[in-house]
Amino acid sequence: MEYKINEEEKQVQVFDGNKKIGLIDMIFKGNVIDAVHTRVEKEYGGQGIAGKLVDKLVEYARENNKKIIPSCPYIRDKFEKDDSYDDVYLK
Description:
Elements: E1 2-6, E2 11-16, E3 19-29, E4 32-40, H1 49-63, E5 67-69, H2 73-81
Parallel strand pairs: 4-5
Antiparallel strand pairs: 1-2, 2-3, 3-4
Protein name: N-acetyltransferase
Pfam families: Acetyltransf_CG (PF14542)
Domain N-acetyltransferase: 1-91, 4-90
């Protein structure tokens, strides 16, 4: 699995070989990233892929001094339950 940030497509993406199997859609607003949607293909469910996508998003935000608005319910739930995200969480 390869996780990457695609700024042009405004997504955090994960690939299995050449197949995109998951993503987080982002909207850039200056120094803020609005994470609006997370999706992982059903056949890849239950493997922790969505969580790793969130980790990649958080890593990107930290490296680029950005904050995240977790509009996506999945990401918001993770941020609310884990205070390790507080440094990037724009409440």
